[in-house]
Write a structure and sequence with these properties.
119 residues, 77% helix, mainly alpha, single chain
Length: 119
């Protein structure tokens, strides 16, 4: 049985395409794409819900691993794309947080809600 598994593994690893899709170079970034997808979806939610500290931590995380993805050999461009997307989404969230809490976004939203007539 072990010889059969070893032969199947050698056959799979001999093909560069299947070797890539069965490696951590592919599955690591593919599974990590949940973070930027969630961040992009969160841009549609209220800025009241944004945590400034978490957003800052995720920006640092994204830039750190963007650098890491280009420092490893071979370069992992899929991991770079994942963290580039995450950095963009987190920077957007950071802008929304700053706008809401410090640049008058909350004050502008309150009169708009008050101006809506109730039924």
């Amino acid at each position: 049985m072990a010889a059969l598994i070893k032969a199947a593994n050698a056959k799979i690893r001999s093909n560069p395409v299947s070797n890539y899709f069965l490696s951590t170079h592919f599955w690591g970034p593919a599974s990590n794409f949940g973070i930027p997808i969630a961040a992009v979806l969160d841009t549609q939610k209220s800025p009241e819900l944004i945590s400034g500290q978490m957003t800052g931590a995720l920006v640092v995380y994204a830039f750190t691993f963007m650098r890491y993805s280009l420092a490893v050999t071979p370069k992992n461009y899929l991991l770079f794309a994942c963290h580039f997307t995450n950095a963009g989404a987190q920077l957007t969230q950071g802008y929304r947080y700053m706008n809401w809490h410090y640049w008058g976004g909350k004050d502008k939203a309150v009169p708009a809600v008050a101006a809506v007539p109730s039924a």
